[in-house]
Write a structure and sequence with these properties.
This protein is an alpha/beta fold. It contains five helices and six strands. The protein starts with 7 loop residues before the first strand and ends in a 6-residue tail after the last helix. The structure holds guanosine-5'-diphosphate (GDP) and magnesium ion (MG).
C-alpha cells in the first residue's frame, strides 16, 4: 500500500496538552496499542510513541506523538514539546470544567508561542461519563469554532472517536503537494 512510485509516506509531530488526569496517555495508548488500562501511570515529563495510519490509497501518515505531563511543575517544559509540532491536540475531561478552562489556557499559549500554522484540535474526553457531564458539547463546539480548531468528543475507555480524531487530523493537515 505504501510502496511503489506513487507512494507517499508523510509524517508529522503531534503534541498532546491538557490538565493532568484528562486522559491524554489513555488516548495515545488506545490509538497506538488499541488498549485501555484503567491503572495507567501518571506521565512523568513526557513520553514518545508513534503510529502510522493510511490516509488514502498509497499515502500513509506517521504520527510522532509527544504525550506531555499536565502537572504545573512541568509547564515550563511544554515549549520543548510543542515547538516544531504540526499538530497540537488539546484535551479536557467533559466532567471537569476546570480542565476545560485549562484547555483554553493551552490554546492561548499555542496561539502566542506555537509554530505558525499549527493545526489545533480540541478534544473533550471521557465522553462515556455522560451522567457526570459538566461541560456541554455546545461549549466545546463554540470555543473550537471561535478559535479555528477542529473539535471532537472521545472516550479512550470505549474507543469512541479515537481513530476518527487522528483520521480527521490527517485529512486537515496542509500536506505538501509533491
Ligand atoms: P493524563 O494525565 O491526561 O495522561 O490522563 P491518563 O491517561 O493518565 O488518565 C487519567 C485517568 O482517567 C485514569 O484513571 C484513566 O483510567 C481515566 N480515563 C482516561 N480516559 C478515560 C475515558 O475516556 N473514560 C473514562 N471513564 N476514564 C478515562
Ligand atoms: Mg499522562
Amino acid at each position: 500500500n505504501s510502496e511503489g512510485p506513487d507512494a507517499k509516506n508523510l509524517r508529522v509531530k503531534l503534541v498532546l496538552l491538557g490538565d493532568s488526569g484528562v486522559g491524554k496517555s489513555c488516548i495515545v495508548l488506545r490509538f497506538v496499542r488499541g488498549q485501555f488500562d484503567p491503572t495507567s501511570k501518571v506521565t512523568v515529563g513526557a513520553s514518545f510513541l508513534s503510529q502510522t495510519i493510511a490516509l488514502q490509497e498509497s499515502t500513509t501518515v506517521k504520527f510522532e506523538i509527544w504525550d506531555t505531563a499536565g502537572q504545573e511543575r512541568y509547564a515550563a517544559l511544554a515549549p520543548l514539546y510543542y515547538r516544531g509540532a504540526g499538530v497540537a491536540v488539546i484535551v479536557y475531561d467533559i466532567t471537569s470544567p476546570e480542565s476545560f478552562a485549562k484547555a483554553q489556557y493551552w490554546v492561548k499559549e499555542l496561539q502566542k508561542h506555537g509554530s505558525p500554522g499549527i493545526l489545533m484540535a480540541l478534544v473533550g474526553n471521557k465522553a462515556d461519563l455522560q451522567e457526570k457531564r459538566e461541560v456541554q458539547v455546545q461549549d466545546g463546539i463554540d470555543y473550537a469554532e471561535k478559535n479555528g480548531m477542529f473539535f471532537i468528543e472521545t472516550s479512550a475507555k470505549t474507543a469512541d472517536n479515537i481513530n476518527q480524531l487522528f483520521e480527521e487530523i490527517a485529512k486537515r493537515l496542509p500536506w505538501p503537494s509533491s
